[in-house]
Design goal:
Length: 392
């Protein structure tokens, strides 16, 4: 699977400005399930849910509950998050919950870690927002170890110490869930993703291409610096927003009231200005294809593209229509065109099966060689690389 395409949902409960109707929380929860099922049926690869602890959102406070339910309702869909709050959740609980989800889904899951966009969530859970970056760094350092070591001794700034703690269940097939580090504007998070050799997801739905280019470039350079692979082999994901009709004029006319009245847009730039400055694409399926392919010009070959569709008060019937268009008209063309453009040696999108196969090969090759916990490289590999570099 060279690239993954899918949906991300923030689970907002927003009034439909064209009818004045506000769906109930129950309706929105059930709608997300129906949307994910259709995504699976039309051949999309990923459904990712957010994590919120406040209105007007119904995104689950504990995403594995929803994702485990979806695992029983779908066949091929990778179930993920957008995002899991690494700052205000206990890493020990995250390790157990997501490893359990990994078993329930037979590996058909991963997760995206982030700091969220709701400031008050920090004091609600006894944390200080001024420590957001430090919390993200320390908590993930622990989570990373809990999935890789059976008996963990730990002492840090933000939680009580652990002594010979074993997180259960252990990761499926001995391979931890794949982790994406999501960030919009924090270079420290791009650095963190690169340090561990994890994926970096830039949810640039409110940001211009140049900002995205700089963030992804930083991650790629640091990924190579830490010895995980070349610049082009770093694992990148992007966010996007689309609304489609058979002609662009109808798309703009029909989406405008949702854009103008949605809390996240209202009072800001016009629909036309926002579309020109960010990845929001309101138009035909062909325009969505063209705009999405253009992302490669500023981030290079990448592995995951997620689209935001069920937001701003759009009714379920409309969202389902958009998902069907995406799966039947847009994504098949994107798969083919991205594959044609792909540089040799660029890795495929991560899957559990591929990572299990790679881990098995690595274990067989290493036969007791000590692998560095942080960079994923061995001392002899680093020495060989230095020798080659010095000989140039």
């Amino acid at each position: 699977m060279q690239m993954q395409f899918g949906l991300m949902s923030v689970g907002d409960v927003t009034t439909d400005p064209t009818t004045g109707r506000t769906p109930s929380e129950h309706e929105r929860i059930k709608a997300q399930i129906e949307i994910a099922r259709l995504a699976d049926e039309v051949g999309l690869d990923v459904f990712a849910t957010g994590e919120h602890h406040n209105p007007p959102f119904i995104a689950p406070a504990n995403p594995p509950i929803q994702l485990a339910h979806l695992a029983a309702q779908t066949t091929n869909l990778i179930l993920s998050t957008s995002t899991t709050l690494i700052t205000t959740n206990d890493p020990a609980r995250l390790a157990e919950d997501y490893a359990y989800l990994q078993h329930l889904t037979e590996g058909r899951m991963d997760l995206m870690l982030g700091r969220g966009n709701t400031g008050p969530v920090y004091p609600w859970f006894g944390k200080d927002i001024r420590e957001g970056i430090a919390l993200a760094v320390e908590n993930y350092a622990l989570l990373h170890r809990l999935w890789r070591e059976e008996n963990v001794d730990w002492e840090g700034r933000f939680r009580t110490p652990l002594h010979q703690f074993t997180s259960t269940p252990r990761p499926l097939d001995g391979v931890p869930p794949f982790v994406w580090h999501g960030s919009i504007r924090s270079p420290e998070i791009a650095e963190q993703a690169a340090y561990y050799g994890d994926g970096f997801f830039h949810n640039h739905i409110f940001w211009p291409a140049e900002h995205t280019r700089r963030m992804v470039d930083l991650y790629r350079r640091r990924y190579e610096h830490y010895g995980h692979g070349t610049y082009d082999q770093a694992i990148v994901g992007l966010g996007g927003q689309v609304f489609m009709r058979e002609n662009s004029q109808d798309a703009i006319r029909d989406f405008r009231p949702y854009f103008d009245n949605a809390p996240v847009y209202g009072g800001g730039p016009s629909l036309e200005d926002f579309s020109s400055q960010t990845p929001l694409t309101v138009g035909t399926p062909d325009q969505v294809i063209e705009r999405t392919l253009a992302a490669r010009d500023y981030v290079g070959d990448y592995q995951r593209q997620l689209f935001l569709m069920d937001h701003a008060g759009l009714p379920l019937k409309e969202v389902l229509y958009q998902v069907e268009l995406l799966g039947t008209r847009v994504v098949p063309v994107l798969r083919e065109e991205f594959a044609k453009l792909r540089k040799p040696g660029v890795p495929d999108a991560p899957t559990h099966a591929a990572r299990v196969a790679a881990a098995g090969g690595a274990r067989e090759d290493e036969r007791g060689a000590q692998r560095d916990e942080w960079t994923g490289t061995r001392a002899e590999e680093l020495n060989a690389a230095r020798t080659i570099e010095e000989g140039r």
